[in-house]
Amino acid sequence: MVNKKVDFSTFFLILTQMNKTKKFLVLFTLFIVPLLFYIFLSKGIYKYANLPILTENVVDISGDATFEEHFTVVCFLGDDLSKTKGQLFNLNETIYKRYNKSLYFQTLVIVAPGEEDEIEQIKNRLGTYADASKWKFVITTKENIVAIFNSFDTPYMLNDNFGSDYAFIVDRELRLRGRKDDDDIDDGKLYGYDMNSVAILKNKMRDDIGIIYYQLKKSMQKEKRRKREI
Length: 230
Fold this sequence. Notes:
alpha/beta; Glutaredoxin; seven-stranded mixed sheet; 5 helices; 7 strands; 52% helix; 15% strand; elongated; disordered N terminus
């Protein structure tokens, strides 16, 4: 009989503990999980709330192409495309294929005169991977290349071929966008994205363009709500 009482007491204790565990799980599910989700979501919204403006009023391209009213990935390849075309294919794989169907998007390549034949070959090759209509090639003087590049006001310099290893993001209001808190840079300011590094293009530039489109989406939703309220 004593053993039976001990067994019953033990069973009752286990049952009580199980009920407490169930109550805790219910409370955790109802209150703690939503709170954790809210904190995570809030941090996500904060992260994607803004992509900093680093330079205002960059010099626009003259002629058929323009930065205005576009989200533009800009690169300067100068007068020797044969040495730098590999950078374009890195951009094509990591950035262009992801965003070429997005609103206002374009990729603009600035080159010096004399590269016309090379441009046609590159266009044909790019066209085998995806619709290349958002690839814009602008041929302009070396003086204009220097003027446009310098207007970005970055710590970088053009090389001897009037080109750069960096790609840049220019928004619809002619503003250079980038980072002010990049962990890999001493002062945190990331003006451009090294086209030789697929990792940088994929993990930084692609994410940063995504932030711009997040902003655009939220702005368009806000405008729709405003119009419905009128």
